[in-house]
């Protein structure tokens, strides 16, 4: 399992998850991966987007966001049409099509290389499409959209 993030100006690092990702593992990612990356790559005012997975919305993690004064994008409960990271995962899969790995470490190295090779124009295009995506979901009254 991997975890990743991006903005319109920078690809964040991928984080390899060994075992089960729970609220404590997620908080560790927020503190030791997101926080340093955000400080280095984002303005002082930024908004974090995540889905409503229980580990993301736990009281423990909510306290982390409050303590760190990180603004969260309000997120509908059923929203795969809106999540740009899903498109980035698809792009990552395309970048690794036909590539074989002999072990988990080699596979993760391949994933990292493919992640870093995704053009920033793709990230920017996905994020620029968010207003249209949101409107499409509103217009479809929560039902699936073309996205």
Automatic annotation (TrEMBL):
GO terms for molecular function: nucleic acid binding. Residues 19-98 form the Tc1-like transposase DDE domain. Gene3D superfamilies: Ribonuclease H-like superfamily/Ribonuclease H (3.30.420.10). It holds the Pfam family DDE_3. This is DDE_3 domain-containing protein. It comes from Caenorhabditis japonica.
């Amino acid at each position: 399992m991997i975890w990743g993030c991006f903005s319109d100006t920078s690809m964040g690092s991928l984080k390899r998850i060994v075992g089960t990702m729970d609220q404590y593992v997620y908080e560790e990612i927020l503190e030791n991966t997101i926080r340093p990356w955000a400080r280095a790559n984002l303005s002082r005012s930024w908004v974090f987007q995540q889905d409503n997975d229980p580990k993301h919305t736990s009281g423990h993690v909510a306290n982390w966001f409050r303590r760190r004064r990180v603004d969260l994008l309000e997120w509908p409960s059923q929203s795969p049409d809106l999540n740009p990271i899903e498109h980035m995962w698809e792009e990552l899969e395309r970048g690794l099509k036909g590539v074989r790995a002999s072990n988990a470490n080699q596979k993760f190295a391949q994933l990292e290389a493919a992640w870093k090779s995704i053009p920033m124009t793709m990230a920017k295009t996905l994020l620029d499409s968010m207003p249209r995506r949101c409107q499409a979901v509103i217009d479809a009254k929560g039902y699936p959209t073309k996205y």
